[in-house]
């Protein structure tokens, strides 16, 4: 008899839940609401909201838009976006996650401090990711974005530096990068010119622990996430390294039922951008498929 469980801690983080609630509230009053980029890195959820009237736009579209309402998602936006909106009389519905907003303020403050001593702001994150673009904007786009060790050669180690992290990055990788930077500063006897702000969201940090604990209680993990979610890819890789029997799926179409048949207890989990209804739908699909066998 097959047993299927969904991890209790899986599902949207509060930043995403709140952005979706804001979106649904607006759409209960208006027929259409524009949002800059996908409101969440999950195409199923985006499709559901599109049916309610959500329209996804690119930030560059704002230049041509006037007198309308545009939502900013949980990842936040750089100051330039707010300026364009103001110029074009666009009403901003701001759903930036409070944790990201605080990070933007900290990066801005760090930038002002670094300017005083000819220092640099470094962001450990994915170049081009919306949150990172929003953070770079706090530094007049002067921040150095690093995503891997090789990128460290963009840094001038003889100058002071303050490093921050994108909220959804891996804590282990961040520490590795910081330790390497520290060694380089030490070699120049300038360790006191290194400032570190670990700005990884606690929700993301604690998810790794709960996910691995959950993986230990099942025979296989179906990890549900959008293909573009950095948090999803990170959590999946972590889970896979811990438990070989882990599969990345974005929808029920990605499930290999033949392969699943050999397991007794199937665990379903997901990223901070994976809706609970999607994990429930996958559970029901697998249950039904095996009932009919
Ligand atoms: S992962 Fe954390 S910082 Fe990012 S939206 Fe969710 S709660 Fe906010």
From the structure above, extract its key features.
single chain; 293 residues; alpha/beta; Cobalt-precorrin-4 Transmethylase, domain 1; Rossmann fold; four-stranded parallel sheet; 17% strand; binds iron/sulfur cluster
Structural class: alpha/beta
Q: How large is the radius of gyration?
A: 21 Å
Q: Which strand-content bin applies to the residues? A: 15-25%
What is the CATH homology-level superfamily of the largest domain?
A: 4-hydroxy-3-methylbut-2-enyl diphosphate reductase, catalytic domain
Question: Could you describe the 3D structure shown?
Answer:
The structure is a single chain. With 293 residues, the chain is of the alpha/beta class. The chain has three domains: 3-11 and 202-291, Cobalt-precorrin-4 Transmethylase, domain 1; 14-96, Rossmann fold, CATH 3.40.50.11270; 99-196, Cobalt-precorrin-4 Transmethylase, domain 1, CATH 3.40.1010.20. Helices cover 43% and strands 17% of the residues. It contains ten helices and twelve strands. A four-stranded parallel beta sheet has the order 1-12-10-11, sandwiched between helices. Strands 3-2-4-5 form a four-stranded parallel beta sheet, with helices on both faces. Bound molecules: iron/sulfur cluster.
């Amino acid at each position: 008899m097959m047993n299927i469980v969904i991890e209790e801690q899986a599902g949207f983080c509060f930043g995403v839940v709140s952005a979706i609630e804001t979106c649904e509230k607006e759409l209960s009053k208006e027929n259409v609401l524009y949002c800059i980029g996908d409101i969440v890195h999950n195409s199923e959820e985006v499709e559901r909201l599109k049916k309610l009237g959500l329209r996804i736009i690119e930030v560059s579209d704002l230049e041509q838009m006037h007198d309308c309402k545009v939502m900013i998602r949980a990842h936040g936006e750089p100051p330039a976006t707010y300026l364009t909106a103001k110029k074009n009389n666009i009403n901003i519905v701001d759903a930036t996650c409070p944790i990201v907003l605080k990070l933007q303020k900290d990066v801005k403050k760090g930038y002002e401090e670094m300017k005083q001593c000819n220092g640099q702001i470094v962001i450990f994150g994915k170049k081009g990711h919306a949150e990172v673009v929003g953070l770079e904007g706090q530094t007049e786009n002067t921040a150095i974005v690093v995503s891997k060790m090789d990128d460290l050669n963009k840094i001038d180690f003889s100058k002071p530096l303050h490093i921050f992290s994108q909220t959804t990055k891996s804590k282990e990788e961040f520490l590795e990068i910081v330790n390497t930077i520290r060694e380089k500063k030490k070699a120049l006897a300038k360790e006191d010119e290194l400032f570190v702000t670990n700005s990884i969201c606690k929700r993301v940090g604690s998810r790794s622990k709960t996910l691995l604990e959950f993986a230990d209680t099942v025979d296989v993990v179906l990890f549900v996430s959008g293909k573009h979610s950095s948090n999803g890819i990170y959590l999946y890789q972590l889970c896979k390294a811990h438990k070989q029997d882990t599969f990345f799926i974005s929808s029920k179409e990605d499930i290999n039922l033949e392969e699943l048949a050999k397991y007794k207890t199937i665990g379903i989990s997901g990223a901070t951008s994976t809706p609970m209804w999607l994990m429930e739908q996958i559970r029901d699909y697998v249950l039904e498929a095996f009932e009919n066998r």
